[in-house]
Design brief:
The protein is α/β, with parallel strands linked by helices. The chain has one domain: Protein tyrosine phosphatase superfamily (Protein-Tyrosine Phosphatase, Chain A), CATH 3.90.190. 49% of the residues lie in helices and 8% in strands. It is built from twelve helices and seven strands. The strands form two sheets. The chain has a five-stranded mixed β-sheet, covered by helices on one side. Strands 2-7 form a two-stranded antiparallel sheet. Helix 2 links the parallel strand 4 and strand 5. The longest helix has 16 residues. The termini are far apart.
Length: 269
């Protein structure tokens, strides 16, 4: 019997084991230019990519994949699939202890525990705090990421677990360096809120409240893309550095010549 070749997905919607994938190509950027197609991608983790998904990803001819997951995430989800000729850079943007505690709450927390931790706006506030912390506490990582892309690390794919928060904010930082306007960055970020892009929540146990509507409602803010989260990051930049230019140069140590090299690599027109 002849083995049939894999049916390669033609669009991101056809990917089976990789969620929240998209090419940032076409976004308007500095000096009337646009992000070049096929050089800057974002997604959720690649650990569950199918054979067909892997063929699709191989065809992108990526240079580098930045994996922003921590050790707890990788233990839970698994390592990324192997892609041909790709440099894999694990650059954790959260502490493994925080990751382990987060997943224990999501997967094992009973209704009373979730109410205590997440009800009455506490889940959304947790996300706002985490976005602020990603800006002020991960300066070195974001600076290293931008420097690597400016030198020789494109085409590049950035991902975390859901591709929404750590990857979403890293993409936002990259787009700021490319001169993309805030409203355009926000519009791209909000695409992660689409139902087909969201992380699939899995819960342990067989009790009646395991996947009860109230449980899912309590967890939703953690897995949603909301403008107030990204706005908290922008506000933190403004409060700490005054504007994105000083954030890039003083906070991340990303120089004007490096920014020009980044734009030469990733922009067209």
């Amino acid at each position: 019997m002849t083995q049939q070749p894999p049916q390669v997905p033609q669009t991101e919607a056809a990917l089976v084991g990789v969620r929240n994938f998209r090419d940032l190509g076409g976004l308007p950027a500095a000096d009337g230019r646009r992000v070049r197609e096929g050089v800057l991608f974002r997604s959720g983790h690649l650990a569950h990519a199918t054979e067909e998904d892997t063929v699709f990803l191989d065809a992108l001819k990526l240079h580098t994949v930045f994996d922003f997951r921590n050790a707890a995430d990788i233990k839970l989800e698994g390592p990324d699939v192997t892609l041909r000729g790709v440099r894999n850079v694990n650059l954790p943007l959260s502490d493994p202890a925080d990751g382990a505690g987060f997943w224990t709450m999501v997967r094992e927390g009973d209704l009373n525990t979730l109410r205590k931790l997440l009800d009455e706006g506490r889940a959304a506030q947790r996300m706002i705090n985490s976005y602020r912390a990603l800006i002020t506490g991960r300066l070195d990582e974001h600076g290293r990421m931008l420097s690597a892309i400016a030198e020789d690390s494109s085409p590049v794919l950035m991902h975390c677990s859901a591709g929404k928060d750590r990857a979403g904010l890293s993409i936002a930082v990259t787009l700021l360096a490319l001169g993309v306007e805030r409203d355009v960055i926000e519009a791209d970020y909000l695409e992660s809120a689409a139902a087909h892009r969201r992380y699939k929540i899995w819960r342990k146990g067989g009790g009646e409240d395991t996947m009860a509507p109230e449980v899912l409602a309590l967890l939703l803010p953690l897995f949603d893309a909301r403008l107030e989260y990204l706005a908290a990051a922008f506000t933190t930049i403004e409060e700490t550095w005054g504007d994105p230019e000083r954030y890039l140069s003083e906070g991340l140590g990303f120089t004007a010549p490096q920014r020009e090299r980044l734009r030469e690599r990733l922009l067209t027109g």
